[in-house]
């Protein structure tokens, strides 16, 4: 069944996907990764997207984030049709409303931890000093306060991941999209990260979407969508919001 069987109050839906098809290549080389995906994600919830490698999870969140364009179908975020946005309007919308935590940290080698975490605020016009003060607050929360002046090559993979997480949250986005956010972290740090993400979702009616294979963190999910072969196989609400 390639649909989300749970019907949320439309006022509680932050992301709505209808009929999302994503194809790569042409002719005989064409591969269909998403097969008409229908799914809604509610506000104030941490929703997990799970399933085997290659089932289309990362492709789906990339379409939701506007990093990939769907071959057909539509994505609505906060009532705005993302699939019709192009160019500067799309970039501005993503910068304002979305935060990303991806497997690749994409930190800037020449910047310190605090400066990397502050980048999204500087891009939005904050002074570097005020942006660093805000980023330091999050770095402290993530146990990185003592490393705020270090450069990425002086930090472990887990420490770099925490900087990337701070960078994704510092501009107070409405939606946070995470691709394996705890993959590089030990159990305790991974739990701390999920506590923070859970607080981000529940305390402010944001939506957090987590793609993960890490069964250590499943207890943090409010909803779990299971994908298989480019389709939504099952959608479970574990906590009613």
CATH architecture: 3-Layer(aba) Sandwich
- CATH H-level name... which superfamily? P-loop containing nucleotide triphosphate hydrolases
User: Which regions have little confidence, pLDDT < 50, spanning 5+ residues?
Assistant: none
Please give the domain count: 1
Largest sheet geometry: 6 strands, mixed
- Helix-strand sequence: EEEHEEHEHHHEHEEE
Total strands: the figure is 10
Number of helices: 6
Strand content: 25-35%
Helix percentage: 25-40%
Mean pLDDT: 88
Basic shape? globular
Radius of gyration: 18 Å
Structural class assignment: alpha/beta
Cα(first) to Cα(last) distance is: 24 Å
Oligomer: single chain
CATH topology term: Rossmann fold
* Order of strands, widest sheet: 6-7-8-3-9-10
Question: Could you please describe the fold and organization of this structure?
Answer:
The longest helix is centred in the last third of the chain and has 18 residues, at 187-204. The strands form 2 sheets. The protein has a 6-stranded mixed beta sheet with strand order 6-7-8-3-9-10. Strands 2-1-4-5 form a 4-stranded antiparallel beta sheet, with helices on one face. The protein has one domain (10-235): P-loop containing nucleotide triphosphate hydrolases (Rossmann fold, 3-Layer(aba) Sandwich). With 241 residues, the protein is α/β, with parallel strands linked by helices. The chain has helices spanning 57-64, 87-97, 113-123, 128-141, 157-169, 187-204; strands at residues 13-24, 31-42, 45-50, 72-77, 80-81, 98-101, 175-179, 207-211, 223-228, 231-237. The protein contains 6 helices and 10 strands, in the order βββαββαβαααβαβββ.
């Amino acid at each position: 069944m390639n649909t989300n069987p749970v019907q949320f109050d439309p006022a509680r839906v932050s992301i709505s996907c209808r009929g999302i098809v994503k194809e790569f290549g042409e002719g005989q080389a064409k591969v269909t990764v998403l097969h008409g995906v229908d799914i809604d994600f509610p506000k104030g919830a941490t929703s997990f997207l799970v399933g085997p490698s290659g089932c289309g999870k990362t492709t789906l969140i990339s379409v939701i984030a506007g990093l990939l364009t769907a071959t057909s179908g539509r994505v609505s975020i906060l009532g705005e049709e993302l699939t019709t946005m192009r160019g500067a309007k799309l970039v501005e919308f993503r910068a304002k409303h979305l935060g990303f935590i991806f497997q690749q940290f994409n930190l800037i080698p020449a910047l310190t931890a605090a400066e990397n975490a502050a980048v999204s605020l500087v891009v939005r016009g904050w002074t570097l000093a005020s942006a660093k003060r805000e980023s330091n607050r999050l770095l402290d929360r993530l146990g990185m306060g003592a490393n705020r002046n270090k450069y990425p090559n002086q930090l472990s993979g887990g420490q770099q991941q925490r900087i990337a997480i701070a960078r994704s949250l510092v501009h107070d986005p409405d939606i946070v999209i995470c691709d394996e956010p705890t993959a590089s972290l030990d159990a305790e740090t991974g739990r701390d990260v999920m506590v923070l993400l859970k607080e981000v979702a529940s305390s402010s009616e944001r939506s957090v979407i987590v793609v993960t294979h890490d069964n250590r963190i499943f207890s943090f999910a409010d909803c779990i969508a299971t994908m298989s072969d480019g389709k939504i196989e099952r959608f479970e609400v574990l906590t009613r919001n």
